[in-house]
Amino acid sequence: MDKAGYEQGRLDLPFVGIATFGKNPYVQDWQSIDADVAILGAPYDFGTQWRAGARFGPRAIREASTLFSFGHGGAYDHEDDVTYLPADKVRIVDIGDADIVHTDTIKSHANIEYGVRQILKARALPIVLGGDHSINIPCINAFEDEDPIHLVQIDAHLDFVDERHGVRFGHGNPMRRAAEKDYVTGLSQIGIRNVSSTAKQGYEDARAMGSDIMSVRQFRKLGVEQVLARIPSGVRYYISIDIDGFDPSIAPGTGTPSHGGFLYYEGLELLAGLAKQGTIVGIDLVEVAPDYDHTGTTAILAAQILMNTIGRIMHARP
Questions:
Q1: Helix (H) or strand (E) holding 240
Q2: Residues 6 or more apart from 201 whose CB is under 8 A from it?
């Protein structure tokens, strides 16, 4: 582009420039976060029990998110007649990734927790890109000094294993670790189906510790409104989205795919309903493993569900 072209401004198409989330500004100094929403990458996948690869999830989701960055000053939805994420009202920043120390779960999780705590300290909404589902553990730890939260999980697997061969912080453990926190008032575990990584005792423990468990078929039989009615209203929600909660026909790029999952609008309508009936105070989206999906569909789904959910969260706020 010549000088005259630059003076008229840049078109800045999705495939041009640096791939931050939604092509929003990058903030390197975590002490200087000034935004409504802050994106943190957690490229950790040492907690997996089968196929690794979710360490590449944050990069893939960020690149996919550029598809939704055409620079129209917001995202107009003709069905809702709403422009979500208006550029003059919603400030989103990408603060990069937490540092991951290979083979060191405790240090890597501590670095993720620190990033979430810095976002909360700045009074911004943390959106964490995983990584395997164990990264939910440090995310929930970061809310220790905050008001109580109700955890809503979208997932194929219960992830309620207490301990297996000494492992307590893998991707089969996060919901058990969350349920142990006194500031987690309950869990809604939605989409759980088929053969699970959690044994029957884990399901019994989950219910005893305050979990409401629903499969995809139960969700569809009830419908979105009745499912929302089962989730406490008027409270603070933390949302944990495992991409394998969605059907592998639209999300094959994950380590533990499970057929019979959600379709896009089922997930979005649930999340949009939560944004209206309570306050969503944090989200993690995990288990995107792009090497198992060379079409990029899984990462696009992750970016699209996050972008639309953020829009609905911010639209619902005063």
A1: strand 236-242
A2: none
H or E segment to which residue 97 belongs? strand 92-97
Contact of 45 with 55, CB cutoff 8 Å: yes
Spatial distance between the Cα atoms of 300 and 251, rounded to a whole number of angstroms: 9
- Please state, as a whole number, how many other Cβ atoms lie within 10 Å of the Cβ of residue 212: 16
pLDDT tens per residue, range 197-249: 788 999 999 999 999 999 999 999 999 999 999 999 999 999 999 999 999 99
- Amino acid at position 69, single letter: S
Residue with tokens 């697997």, as numbered in its chain:
157
Q: Where are the domains of the chain?
A: 19-316
Non-local CB neighbours of 7 within 8 Å, separated by 6+ positions: none
* CATH number assigned to the domain covering 19-316: 3.40.800.10
Residue 98's CB is within 10 A of a number of other CB atoms, namely 25
pTM (2 decimals)? 0.96
Contact present, 93 and 118 (Cβ < 8 Å): no
